[in-house]
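User: New here, please read:
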Amino acid sequence: SIPSRAQAITTNTPAIDWRNYGSDVMKPSILQLNPILIPAISEKLNALYTVYRYFEIDDKETFIKEHGNSIRGVVSGGHTGISNALMEKLPALEVVAINGVGVDAVDLDYARKRGIHVTATLGALPEDVADLAIGLLIATCRGICSGDRVVRNGLWAKNPHPGSIPLSRRFSGMRVGIVGMGRVGRAIAARASAFGCPISYTDLHAMQDLDYPFIADLQELARRSDALILSASADKAEGIINAAVLDALGQDGFLVNIARGKLVNEPDLVSALTEGRISGAGLDVFVDEPNVPEVLFGLDSVVLQAHRASATVETRTAMGEMVLASLAQALSGQRPENSLTR
């Protein structure tokens, strides 16, 4: 169904100085492509703008014909981004505010040519994402989730012999290789170091401010690591974790991915896990989300999450505030602090 202008979210608040945004009646129109899960952020967005929830609109083509010319801002998620085809139908578009750090689903070159700001919530996610990366690695190598299932299913009571559950692997002291040493990679390194883990990394180039060994070749990094953690932005990389890298990691090695699913050649990973060519994997992201290779469901050597590395109240609130700031700055003629295109 197509919402009328009156059906759009237009809650007013007297605390806002509308001189920067237009009158209460003609607030800037925003197209929201993904839900925002923090109510306080949604309330602020709705107070400042005329918001159209694109993800709730059935007849999107008719909606765009009626309202596309008025849309000045878009709010989207990193996985959804925005297509060039949609941007082309929004001639007044000034800013695409990504509620996430990944912008690989946005054509930055196209946006740059149009003079459209594309922003991301840079700096809001590293702590929680790094926490989950370490949590996935510990859960995988210590068999926390499989052990939980043994207890919940009553199997421990039926077979209490200590040898009935396979021994797990120690995390402390593991050699950890990090793929992508940006904000998240550095936060992961700090946490792993606290467990006495030697750190090495690869990236597009060595970081002069880091003392960790830089290993340019990904296979060599895997060969020197007990656990390989993926934290690269993945804007251009695809399928870099393939059979050769997994074989270099070896049958005692673990893989953790909290970056982007497309970094991994998924069939190669499935084969390596089912054939025991690596010990296990902790995965928060996948190539075709929310579709996950079903063979992984039955493997005790795998811990799975639903792309939730940043899914805490604290981080999502901070991300939402950054989205609001990006919209406000762009629509008042300023360059947003987190603009990646202008």
